[in-house]
Protein backbone atom coordinates (compact mmCIF):
# COMPACT_ATOMS: atom_id res chain seq x y z
CA UNK A 1 0.00 0.00 0.00
CA UNK A 2 1.40 3.37 -1.04
CA UNK A 3 1.27 6.32 1.33
CA UNK A 4 -0.98 9.09 0.00
CA UNK A 5 0.19 12.68 0.19
CA UNK A 6 -2.62 14.08 -1.96
CA UNK A 7 -2.63 17.88 -1.92
CA UNK A 8 0.87 18.21 -0.42
CA UNK A 9 3.55 20.35 -2.09
CA UNK A 10 7.19 19.27 -1.87
CA UNK A 11 10.10 21.52 -2.85
CA UNK A 12 13.20 19.91 -4.36
CA UNK A 13 16.11 22.32 -3.92
CA UNK A 14 18.81 21.60 -6.49
CA UNK A 15 21.17 23.11 -9.03
CA UNK A 16 23.83 22.00 -11.49
CA UNK A 17 25.64 18.86 -10.38
CA UNK A 18 22.67 17.23 -8.68
CA UNK A 19 22.91 13.43 -8.69
CA UNK A 20 20.15 12.61 -11.17
CA UNK A 21 18.70 9.53 -9.45
CA UNK A 22 18.62 11.35 -6.08
CA UNK A 23 16.38 13.97 -7.69
CA UNK A 24 14.28 11.90 -10.10
CA UNK A 25 13.45 8.87 -7.94
CA UNK A 26 12.19 10.78 -4.86
CA UNK A 27 10.29 13.13 -7.19
CA UNK A 28 8.59 10.15 -8.89
CA UNK A 29 7.69 8.75 -5.46
CA UNK A 30 6.14 12.08 -4.38
CA UNK A 31 4.12 12.34 -7.60
CA UNK A 32 3.05 8.67 -7.47
CA UNK A 33 1.75 9.25 -3.95
CA UNK A 34 -0.38 12.17 -5.14
CA UNK A 35 1.88 15.01 -4.08
CA UNK A 36 3.08 17.95 -6.15
CA UNK A 37 6.83 18.26 -6.65
CA UNK A 38 8.48 21.53 -7.62
CA UNK A 39 12.11 22.08 -8.59
CA UNK A 40 13.41 25.18 -6.80
CA UNK A 41 16.86 26.39 -7.76
CA UNK A 42 19.41 29.16 -7.53
CA UNK A 43 19.22 29.10 -11.34
CA UNK A 44 16.31 30.50 -13.34
CA UNK A 45 16.10 28.23 -16.38
CA UNK A 46 17.34 24.64 -16.11
CA UNK A 47 19.80 22.54 -14.16
CA UNK A 48 22.30 19.96 -15.37
CA UNK A 49 22.11 16.67 -13.47
CA UNK A 50 24.96 14.17 -13.27
CA UNK A 51 25.32 10.43 -13.02
CA UNK A 52 28.27 10.34 -10.64
CA UNK A 53 30.46 12.93 -12.36
CA UNK A 54 29.18 12.45 -15.93
CA UNK A 55 26.55 14.78 -17.42
CA UNK A 56 23.04 13.33 -17.36
CA UNK A 57 19.65 14.95 -18.00
CA UNK A 58 18.66 18.59 -17.85
CA UNK A 59 15.61 19.62 -15.83
CA UNK A 60 13.54 22.80 -15.99
CA UNK A 61 13.51 25.01 -12.90
CA UNK A 62 9.94 25.48 -11.76
CA UNK A 63 10.64 28.25 -9.25
CA UNK A 64 13.75 30.38 -8.73
CA UNK A 65 14.86 30.48 -5.09
CA UNK A 66 14.35 34.24 -5.00
CA UNK A 67 10.60 33.64 -5.52
CA UNK A 68 10.25 30.68 -3.13
CA UNK A 69 9.19 30.54 0.49
CA UNK A 70 9.05 27.59 2.87
CA UNK A 71 5.48 28.63 3.70
CA UNK A 72 4.47 27.56 0.17
CA UNK A 73 5.46 23.92 0.77
CA UNK A 74 4.81 20.99 3.10
CA UNK A 75 8.33 19.51 2.91
CA UNK A 76 11.78 19.92 1.38
CA UNK A 77 14.06 17.43 -0.37
CA UNK A 78 17.81 18.07 -0.66
CA UNK A 79 19.26 15.68 -3.25
CA UNK A 80 23.00 15.14 -3.30
CA UNK A 81 25.72 15.00 -5.86
CA UNK A 82 29.01 16.59 -4.90
CA UNK A 83 28.69 19.91 -6.76
CA UNK A 84 24.98 20.56 -6.16
CA UNK A 85 25.04 21.10 -2.36
CA UNK A 86 28.41 22.84 -2.60
CA UNK A 87 26.86 25.46 -4.90
CA UNK A 88 23.72 25.69 -2.74
CA UNK A 89 25.57 26.23 0.54
CA UNK A 90 27.27 29.33 -0.88
CA UNK A 91 23.93 30.94 -1.80
CA UNK A 92 22.34 32.89 1.09
CA UNK A 93 18.81 32.52 -0.33
CA UNK A 94 19.18 28.73 -0.54
CA UNK A 95 20.61 28.52 2.98
CA UNK A 96 17.80 30.67 4.40
CA UNK A 97 15.21 28.56 2.54
CA UNK A 98 16.55 25.40 4.18
CA UNK A 99 16.70 27.06 7.61
CA UNK A 100 13.05 28.18 7.29
CA UNK A 101 11.89 24.60 6.71
CA UNK A 102 13.84 23.19 9.64
CA UNK A 103 12.79 25.97 12.00
CA UNK A 104 9.14 25.54 10.97
CA UNK A 105 9.35 21.83 11.88
CA UNK A 106 8.51 20.74 8.34
CA UNK A 107 10.00 17.49 7.01
CA UNK A 108 13.42 17.99 5.41
CA UNK A 109 14.91 14.98 3.61
CA UNK A 110 18.59 15.10 2.60
CA UNK A 111 20.53 12.35 0.88
CA UNK A 112 24.22 11.76 0.16
CA UNK A 113 26.00 15.17 0.13
CA UNK A 114 22.69 17.01 0.71
CA UNK A 115 23.42 17.56 4.44
CA UNK A 116 26.15 20.07 3.52
CA UNK A 117 23.38 22.63 3.06
CA UNK A 118 21.94 21.69 6.48
CA UNK A 119 25.36 22.32 8.01
CA UNK A 120 25.57 25.75 6.36
CA UNK A 121 22.07 26.57 7.63
CA UNK A 122 23.28 25.91 11.17
CA UNK A 123 20.59 23.35 11.95
CA UNK A 124 22.50 20.12 12.73
CA UNK A 125 23.94 20.86 16.17
CA UNK A 126 22.64 18.23 18.62
CA UNK A 127 20.96 16.22 15.85
CA UNK A 128 21.74 12.72 14.55
CA UNK A 129 22.16 12.27 10.81
CA UNK A 130 23.61 10.01 8.17
CA UNK A 131 25.16 11.00 4.85
CA UNK A 132 27.76 10.01 2.31
CA UNK A 133 30.67 8.90 4.52
CA UNK A 134 32.95 11.80 3.54
CA UNK A 135 30.58 14.26 5.29
CA UNK A 136 31.05 12.54 8.67
CA UNK A 137 33.75 14.96 9.84
CA UNK A 138 31.83 18.00 8.57
CA UNK A 139 28.69 16.89 10.42
CA UNK A 140 30.48 16.06 13.67
CA UNK A 141 32.40 19.37 13.53
CA UNK A 142 29.02 21.10 13.21
CA UNK A 143 27.80 19.38 16.39
CA UNK A 144 25.85 16.49 14.90
CA UNK A 145 26.14 12.79 15.69
CA UNK A 146 26.84 10.81 12.51
CA UNK A 147 25.56 7.27 12.03
CA UNK A 148 26.14 4.81 9.20
CA UNK A 149 22.56 3.73 8.51
CA UNK A 150 20.45 3.37 5.39
CA UNK A 151 18.08 6.08 6.60
CA UNK A 152 17.92 7.96 9.87
CA UNK A 153 15.08 10.13 11.17
CA UNK A 154 15.72 12.73 13.87
CA UNK A 155 12.58 14.79 14.39
CA UNK A 156 11.86 16.53 11.10
CA UNK A 157 15.24 15.61 9.54
CA UNK A 158 15.36 12.52 7.31
CA UNK A 159 18.80 11.57 6.00
CA UNK A 160 20.27 8.80 3.86
CA UNK A 161 23.73 7.86 2.59
CA UNK A 162 23.58 7.05 -1.12
CA UNK A 163 21.45 6.09 -4.14
CA UNK A 164 21.07 2.50 -2.90
CA UNK A 165 19.17 3.93 0.08
CA UNK A 166 16.56 5.72 -2.05
CA UNK A 167 13.68 3.23 -1.42
CA UNK A 168 14.02 3.57 2.38
CA UNK A 169 14.61 7.32 2.03
CA UNK A 170 11.45 7.89 -0.01
CA UNK A 171 9.37 5.68 2.31
CA UNK A 172 10.39 7.83 5.30
CA UNK A 173 9.82 11.04 3.31
CA UNK A 174 6.31 10.03 2.27
CA UNK A 175 5.47 8.86 5.80
CA UNK A 176 6.65 12.15 7.31
CA UNK A 177 4.73 14.24 4.77
CA UNK A 178 1.56 12.20 5.30
CA UNK A 179 1.79 12.75 9.08
CA UNK A 180 2.66 16.47 8.86
Features:
three-stranded mixed sheet; Rossmann fold; alpha/beta; 27% strand; seven-stranded mixed sheet; 180 residues; single chain; 12 strands
Give the secondary structure arrangement, pairings included.
Elements: E1 9-13, E2 18-19, H1 20-32, E3 36-41, E4 46-51, E5 54-60, E6 63-64, E7 75-78, H2 83-88, H3 92-103, E8 108-111, H4 115-120, E9 128-129, H5 136-141, E10 145-146, E11 151-154, E12 157-160, H6 166-179
Parallel strand pairs: 1-3, 1-7, 2-4, 3-6, 7-8, 8-12, 9-10
Antiparallel strand pairs: 4-5, 11-12
Helix pairs in contact: 1-6
Detailed description of the structure:
32% of the residues lie in helices and 27% in strands. The chain is built from six helices and twelve strands.
Rg calculated over all Cα atoms: 14 Å
What is the fold-level CATH name, i.e. the topology? Rossmann fold
Side by side, the strands of the main sheet go: 6-3-1-7-8-12-11
- How many helices? The count is 6
CATH superfamily: Class I glutamine amidotransferase (GATase) domain
Specify the overall morphology.
Answer: globular
Could you tell me how far the N terminus lies from the C terminus, measured between alpha carbons in angstroms? 19 Å
Top-tier CATH class: Alpha Beta
Q: Would you tell me the overall average pLDDT?
A: 97
State the order of secondary-structure elements, H for helix, E for strand: EEHEEEEEHHEHEHEEEH
Number of individual domains: 1
Low-confidence stretches: none
Q: Judging by the overall fold, what is the CATH architecture?
A: 3-Layer(aba) Sandwich
Total strands: the figure is 12
Quote the beta fraction. Answer: 25-35%
Protein name: Type 1 glutamine amidotransferase
InterPro entries: C56_PfpI-like, Class_I_gatase-like, DJ-1/PfpI
Keywords: Glutamine amidotransferase
Domain DJ-1/PfpI: 8-175
